[in-house]
Each structure stands twice: as structure tokens, then as C-alpha cells.
Fold this protein.
Amino acid sequence: MASQFQFVMRSGPTPGATFSLEGDQLTIGRDSSNGVSINDAEVSRKHSRLTFQGGKYVIEDLGSTNGTFVNGQRLSSSAVLKSGDVVSLGEQIVLLFETLSVDPGATMASPRKARATAAPAPAPAAPMPAPAQNYAGQAPASPARKSPFPLPVLIGVGLLGFICVCGGFIYWVDATYRWCVFFPFLSGCG
């Protein structure tokens, strides 16, 4: 059995599209001359390069603006791809790398260049990690938490608590005969 490699787009402009990977060297980018062409603003014209070495594909970033990530880690050097690896281009483009076993005796038409086909992709076996978001000077957004109590209830409880504290203070002032200490402007104080 021979192996065939492909990318399946999980998120991006054409989710579910598959890109057959063939050849010793392919570039990934927005430009239509790339082996894997993804027309999206987050993808640089020449974003990444795939090189076939020792029966495996090795990926490297080509100085792209938004970066190339493998399993959530930004590439600073080349990385060998394994079946099931998640390759992200920027924040929005997520590709799943797959290795397929192919019967060499079967008749199969194969193009020279990787092409996208809109075919439904199988569901992933495990949840994919989100792409890392390492931006200088910008903290990652935390998920919004919804309060278990609606705002009017919280305001009402706060107001009731304030009234109770004020009432308790007035009761204490009256019980300890401290009216003239706290309120010297009252008649009879002086």
C-alpha cells in the first residue's frame, strides 16, 4: 500500500475542501500559482512551503505576516507533519493533515498540482486545539461569563443591603445617644 497525503480545511473560506498533496515541493499561499491556493486575507501570497523528504512532508513558514502553526505552536523552524496534525495559517484558516493508504494497483487519476475539492470531511476523532494567539501587547480575550442572577436582581439586593446598613447605623446612633456626635447641626446639640 502506498501513501497519499492531503489537507482537509476545517475552518476558512471553504470548510470541508480537500487539497491533495503531490510533488517534492509545494507552496501554500493566497496566490493562485501556489500548489495549495487559499484565497483569504489572513494568508500571505507565499505563506508556507511543504517539502517531501524521506516519505514525509516537512512544513516551514516563509516569513508570513500571520504565522504558520502546527498543533497550536507557531513555527520558528521546519516541522515534520504526522497524520492528524492541525496546521493553522493565521487565526482563521485551520487545515487537518491526513495520510491515506492507497492500493497501487488501483486506477486513479491524479493531477500534478494540489487542488481543492468540496467534499464533506469526516468528523475528527479528537477535538482540535485552537491556534495559539501570541500577539505582542494584546491579552487574549477571556470567554464571557454569564451571571447566574439578572442585573435588576443584583441592583435590588445591593440597594436592600445599603438600606439595612444605614438603618443599623441609625439604630446604633440612637441606642448609644450619639446623635450630637455624628450630627452636631441638629437642634439641641450644642
About this structure: The first helix runs from residue 151 to 175.
